[in-house]
Task: inverse folding
């Protein structure tokens, strides 16, 4: 009954030709062929503009001549223009999502190209020194991507995969990552693939004043000595360059991070760390590392032991020798990443221990040449206090 009344009072309710015309978006209203209406008599009537007419017709999906309809149309038009002028979440410096379902962890839209909605003007290159740790990477990449997205940290993951036949060289791979990551990244995270941050209070902030050691000794599941800076370290590009990156002499496991600590100290770069966390060594990180399966390469050959226990003033970012064999972009679950397949080059005259296959065992020290006591970078460890059995 009400609907019928409304139809009767609608000026052109019965004009099916006009209605069809409006639905199809053509702007002519054929008003010259139509009888005068209440709206033409209304003193408030604004002289009809084709744009308004179109707008109102579109909003109401029918022809309009009454003042109430006009006001209604105007209101919808204003709303529409207001909506258009709102900033879109996909605007900004990063590649953002292409729509789709929401990620269950971050609550942000997921999809092939999804990154995050950064509010941060900084961008972090997450550098993962890597070889033969595929299972760990499958867990690490989505975890860290979600973790950083929750903090709205603008980031990109680079997996620096060593593909040559030399011994693993974590430090040189980090140097490669630094040089190959985008210059749009103004800080880097030197990040182990097997260390997953669990406590959301670990903030991967731009380290403006000096390096920030996220995997602090009081939080790392295994290493607890005061000068430890391994696992996860954030440093801004300028500072990394200032110390000439890391030494390239560390083939095999260990000491490259301690040598880097000596560089930072000499450059008067103060390392800061998280404080006041409610979590500790057991529950701040998860260390996915079974030492029987992922064996640490502790072999020493030639004069490696003697050389690598000292500060290196000869090698670093500026002396690095390598080439990138290939570069692959891929996504693990929602985490986009770049894999760099890297061939490191070794100067066998300088670091013959880059390959110990034919010469296992340390060269005995010449008794005429006593051990150098200056520039030693090896930390003094109390095994009970500074080392846990984890991993
Ligand atoms: N790593 C790797 N392949 C190796 C050795 C090391 O990918 O064969 C990388 C990986 O990112 C790992 C990091 O180097 O997390 C540190 O090595 P590892 O876990 O053996 O040292 P830890 O800190 O547990 O003593
Ligand atoms: Mn480990």
Result:
């Amino acid at each position: 009954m009400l609907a019928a009344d409304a139809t009767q009072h609608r000026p052109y309710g019965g004009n099916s030709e006009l209605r069809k015309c409006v639905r199809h978006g053509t702007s002519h209203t054929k008003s010259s062929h139509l009888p005068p209406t209440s709206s033409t008599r209304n003193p408030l009537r604004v002289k009809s503009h084709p744009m308004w007419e179109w707008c109102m017709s579109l909003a109401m999906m029918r022809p309009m001549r009454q003042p109430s309809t006009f006001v209604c149309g105007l209101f919808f038009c204003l709303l529409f223009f207001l909506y258009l002028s709102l900033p879109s979440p996909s605007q900004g410096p990063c590649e953002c999502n292409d729509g789709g379902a929401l990620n269950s962890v971050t609550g942000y839209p997921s999809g092939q190209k999804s990154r995050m909605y950064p509010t941060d003007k900084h961008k972090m290159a997450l550098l993962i020194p890597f070889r033969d740790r595929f299972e760990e990477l499958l867990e690490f990449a989505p975890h860290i991507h979600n973790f950083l997205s929750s903090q709205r940290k603008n980031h990109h993951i680079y997996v620096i995969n060593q593909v040559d036949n030399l011994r693993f060289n974590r430090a040189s791979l980090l140097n490669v990552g630094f040089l190959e990551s985008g210059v749009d990244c103004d800080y880097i995270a030197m990040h182990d693939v097997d260390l997953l941050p669990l406590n959301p209070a670990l903030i991967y902030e731009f380290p403006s004043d000096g390096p920030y050691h996220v995997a602090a000794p009081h939080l790392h599941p295994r290493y607890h000595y005061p000068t430890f800076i391994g696992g996860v370290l954030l440093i801004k590009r300028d500072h990394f360059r200032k110390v000439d990156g890391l030494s390239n002499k560390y083939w095999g496991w260990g000491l490259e991070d301690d040598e880097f600590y000596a560089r930072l100290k000499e450059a008067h770069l103060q390392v800061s760390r998280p404080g006041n966390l409610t979590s500790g060594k057991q529950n701040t990180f998860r260390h996915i590392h079974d030492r029987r399966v992922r064996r640490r390469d502790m072999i020493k050959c030639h004069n490696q032991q003697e050389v690598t226990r000292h500060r290196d003033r000869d090698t670093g970012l500026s002396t690095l020798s390598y080439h990138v064999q290939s570069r692959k972009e891929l996504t693990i679950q929602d985490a986009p990443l770049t894999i760099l397949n890297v061939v490191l080059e070794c100067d066998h005259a300088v670091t013959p221990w880059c390959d110990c296959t034919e010469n296992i065992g340390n060269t005995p020290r010449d008794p005429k040449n006593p051990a150098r006591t200056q520039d030693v970078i090896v930390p003094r460890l109390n095994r009970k206090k500074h080392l846990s059995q984890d991993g």
Summary: The pocket of uridine-5'-diphosphate (ligand 1) is lined by residues 128-133, 168, 170, 192-194, 230, 253, 289, 296, 391 (CB under 6 Å). The two ends are 79 Å apart (CA to CA). Residues 1-47, 87-114 have pLDDT under 50 and may be disordered. The chain is about 25% helix and 15% strand.
